[in-house]
Amino acid sequence: MKTLGNRVSGKVCIRLLAFAVFASVFGAMSTFAQVGGQVSEYSAKFMCGTPSSAAGGPIATEAVAPGTYFTSINIHNPASSLFTSETSLSFVKKAVISMPEGTTQVPPSQFVQDSLQNDFSEYVDCAIIRTLLGAAAPPAPAFIEGWVIILVPPTTVAGGKSITNVLDVWGVYSNAKGAEHLVPATEHFFTPGGVVAVKPNDNATKAKTGK
What we know:
The protein is of the alpha+beta class. It has one domain. Helix content is about 20%, strand content about 40%. It contains 4 helices and 13 strands. The strands form 3 sheets. It has a 6-stranded antiparallel beta sheet with strand order 4-3-6-1-11-12, sandwiched between helices. It has a 5-stranded antiparallel beta sheet with strand order 5-2-9-10-13. The protein has a two-stranded antiparallel sheet with strand order 7-8. A hairpin with a 2-residue loop joins strand 11 (about 185-190) and strand 12 (about 195-200). The model is unreliable at about 1-10, about 25-35 and about 200-210 (pLDDT under 50).
């Protein structure tokens, strides 16, 4: 019974820590509702590793074409000092593995905090994604696929109003044979209580393929 209590306490501590990270970036959601701020969410697909049950991954070879897959999710802060007094933008990100239908699902990772200076950029590759997932992801080269989720809070400005912050988020997907795809992340805008708007991506025209 003591062991069970320790496990429960450990889970509570982890949840409280995750909430503290989330709250430190987003503040009080009720405040956002009052001033009309929106939270931007980006969902970027990832595919990493070699699809083979022999490699120790949870996905069978037949799920995707044979090969070794790589992902680089590029994140750019488009803000400019010409138009804003803010010098950087804070956001949080997490990763979640997609499992085959009918199998045991894997919980998403905890949020981690990040920031980018105005007009700066970074990428999230397979190594970083596996780090985000921790023990939930088998070590490389086992194949995993899923989503990287990025949430960006609004910024409160003079007069108590707020502006919605955005990022440029694109996924670069390639394999060992040299095929490459560029795909924009799906973009959503939230206020407390639900989705306000969804910005559709016409991947048929935006996605580029090279060999």
